UniProtKB/TrEMBL annotation:
Belongs to the PrpD family. InterPro entries: MmgE/PrpD_sf, MmgE/PrpD_sf_1, MmgE/PrpD_sf_2, MmgE_PrpD, MmgE_PrpD_C, MmgE_PrpD_N. This is MmgE/PrpD family protein. Residues 269-419 form the MmgE/PrpD C-terminal domain. Residues 8-242 form the MmgE/PrpD N-terminal domain. It comes from Phreatobacter stygius. Pfam families: MmgE_PrpD_C, MmgE_PrpD_N.
Length: 455
């Protein structure tokens, strides 16, 4: 009945908050900053009002705060709403293969911290340990092949979320094992919601957060979960991995090195992570003058196999044009070429359905290039009216660890998100909100930060 998860559970239950390196704690604070900015921007986007309305119906107690208000719901429902809002614009952080860790991890941590009155230091340490466990499982599964087998990789958030909540709620080692097993038993999502450009993309992230916290509360109440979570006959590796996992990677440097920072992308453009390099390369070519929008006659894009699966379809915006735009290489390229910018404003419904952009995107030729091994590798061939041809290669968009975002980049992104929110209680207060987040590590609890956002 032993399973590789046991060593990770021992680690998650036993590591002291004070043992988490200061560098790792600082990185977790950046995750909170990025997440709450994305939540602000996504606060009133399509689907979020429905999520809140349903959460109110499903909630029977007041335990945790819906960020941006004083309203309190049952902790799992609060985590659900906050996660939907954080994921709404796909501006949130991402970790290959499409796991958006903070959009569920941070809502789980904040809701659990309100239940337990945990300190800011304990919150950040729990986020570090949860992400470490999730990334170790992710890395072991990907060791022998990149994996998308029809599932939404945010299932990894069930592991990290249960660890985060379990630590903050003070579960015993055995209870934490059951919480992780119960969280895995819930499962979550299929990749089809990306391909069909459905609002389920946003809602599924909320379900990850809700289920992780529910699983933890069930375990605390005595409900048992499956134990052979990773290597059982129907465990994670058999269900979701492409090949044999690298099990020795699970405990490599365990307790000394906390994984996550080396693989996390903080997006600086609000579209799918595989399109960031495409946006950046085209914006740079336009700014240099090599790409002349008024003279462009033809555009051809060669993309990696991963880009084709996620974002390579025809661009024909439907009832959710924002999502169509976020997951389309054609739209991303057309937007960068014609508008020369890629902010939240360019991924609204009205921007995504602008006739000139839709027509231009429709004329683009897109083809898969199997030799492009990195998931965001692509190249654009632009032909101008004078017969000149411009080749624009792209790889490692800014924000990915290979081309990391700076502290100033993240602060600017946060201010953009707050301004985009349209909420008077936040506009003009971005620096105050940033300061509230930056002092979380020294705060006795999460109350001051939540109150700053509710002001």
């Amino acid at each position: 009945m032993t399973d590789p998860i046991e060593g990770l559970i021992d680690h998650a239950a036993g590591v002291r908050a004070s043992a988490v390196p200061a560098r790792t704690i600082a990185f977790q604070a950046r995750r909170v900053l990025d997440n709450l900015g994305c939540l602000a921007a996504g606060h009133d986007q399509a689907g979020t009002g429905t999520a809140l309305s349903l959460a109110r119906r499903w909630s029977g107690t007041a335990e945790a705060t819906v960020i941006g208000s004083t309203e309190r719901l049952a902790a799992p429902q609060t985590a659900f709403v906050n996660a939907v809002r954080a994921r709404a614009l796909d501006f949130c952080d991402v970790l290959s293969p499409g796991w958006h860790p903070s959009s569920s991890d941070v809502p789980v941590a904040l809701a659990a911290a309100e239940l337990s009155d945990a300190s800011g230091a304990d919150i950040l340490a729990a986020l570090a340990v949860g992400q470490d466990v999730g990334q170790r499982i992710n890395r072991a599964a990907q060791a022998n092949g990149f994996f998308y087998r029809g599932f939404d990789s945010n299932i990894l958030g069930l592991f990290s979320g249960a660890v985060i909540a379990g630590r903050l709620l003070g579960l015993s080692r055995d209870q934490l094992g059951h919480a992780v097993g119960l969280a895995f038993d819930f499962g979550i999502g299929t990749f089809q919601h990306y391909q069909d450009k459905a609002l389920a993309v946003r809602i599924s992230q909320g379900l990850v957060a809700r289920h992780a916290l529910e699983a933890t509360l069930m375990a605390a109440a005595g409900i048992t979960g499956p134990r052979r979570v990773l290597a059982g006959e129907s465990g994670f590796f058999r269900l979701y991995g492409p090949a044999e996992p690298r099990l020795d990677g699970l405990d490599e440097g365990l307790g000394q090195r906390f994984l996550g920072q080396e693989a996390t992308c903080f997006k600086l453009y609000p579209s799918c992570g595989v399109t960031l390099a495409l946006t950046e390369a085209l914006l740079a070519a336009r700014q240099s003058g090599d790409l002349r929008p008024a003279a462009v006659t033809d555009v051809a894009i060669r993309i990696s196999p991963t880009m084709r699966v996620i974002c390579g379809g025809a661009y024909a915006p439907t009832t959710t044009p924002e999502i169509d735009a976020q997951f389309s290489v054609r739209y991303v390229a057309a937007n960068a070429i014609l508008r020369g910018r890629a902010t939240l404003e360019e991924f609204t419904a009205s921007a995504a359905t602008a006739p000139d952009i839709v027509a231009f995107a429709g004329r683009m030729a897109v083809a898969e290039e199997p030799a492009f091994g990195h998931f965001d590798q692509c190249e654009v061939i632009v032909r101008h009216a004078d017969g000149s041809e411009l080749l624009v290669p792209a790889q490692f968009g800014r924000g990915w660890p290979e081309n990391p975002a700076s502290t100033a980049d993240l602060a600017a992104k946060f201010r953009q998100c707050v301004a985009f929110s349209g909420r008077e209680c936040w506009i003009g207060r971005a620096d105050h909100l940033i300061a509230a987040i930056e002092t979380l590590a020294e705060a006795p609890n999460v109350g001051p930060m939540i109150e700053a956002f509710a002001a």
